[in-house]
Amino acid sequence: MSAEANTPSRRPVRRNRVNWQDIALRAALPLLAVAIALAVGAILLLLLGANPISAYASMVTGVFGSLSGFTQSFVKATPLLLVGLGICIAFRASVINIGAEGQIILGAVMGTWFALVFRTWPGWLLLPSTLIIGFLAGAAWGFVPGVLKARLGVNEILSTVMMNVIALQLMNLLLRGPLMDPAGVTAGTFLAQSERLPEQVWLFRPEWLRQTQLHAGALIAILMAVVVYIFLWRTTIGYRIRAVGLNPDASRYAGIPVPFYQALSLTLAGGFAGLAGIVEVLGIHHRLLEGITSGYGFSGIVAALFGGLHPLGALPASWLFGSLLVGADKMQRAVQVPSALIDTLLGLVVLLVVGSQRWSKRWAEQRQIAAETARREAKAAAGGQEGQV
To answer: Is the C-alpha dihedral spanning 165, 171, 174, 175 positive or negative?
Structure first.
């Protein structure tokens, strides 16, 4: 036999090449979805007798036309990001947290109570303690549906929604009772708001941004996004949470207590929502008010989905959605359209963008399956030719 026959054939090593077509498609689809949503919105504006060009121009200038508008987009994005981080953790464990509204309320209520009771503490101690109390209060409110699901199999969607109502009524009761501002009682106004918090617990606001509402809570939210990313992708607990979400049966077979990690995920999701609530109080209002949530508990879910349920993806998604909220508010005032149209436009943008991401993922999976099938057929054909030789 020749030396060539004894020498093993060297096949070229296949390297994973960057599929620029897939990358371009994934980048273009969200932009196309936004364009379609804006086109549908333009038709609705025309039906209402408004000029779409003027309306969209006012939306852009509402965000980028002034320092106040630009910073306001970050203010809106801060609670959205914090809530969205909790949603990312919950969804990774294959549980759904619809109770962020109630968890925001509990974080704001307990944080406000703590700051008022211990107002004599120095700021370096009172501020972080108040933030921790807000986180723990929200976590406790998320722990209840987590335990109900883990121990009794109660659907977390139903339990979290019902706990939203309980939290809302509890806040209303306290704001008209123990937490009502004594100054309002003395003046006879009886406003449903708490006493103003001591200044040493307010979140820092730079001197050159005093005329805006931007505060240090935005930095806290960004830091928490990095922490959640490290937690989910660089720790054993995070790995187990993701494993539970990907395949609960396989995780259970591997010895991972699935109910425990689902309850833990709901607890952590509640904690981040509670942190969003107390940050909103300490950074903007400096007192507890009715309507403190502003719908952030539900909008945060949208921001998390917008970011692909990834903590780092939630960063730009929260800012984008916050910008849409600011711009839509300016557009409503500029062209005098009903608020229902603004909600419809935002819903269209979210629905189409999230749907485009889902479609893009399915298309990539189908392409991968087709490529794998073609590779196997080519390998089988090559094996058949070798057998014939």
So the answer is: negative
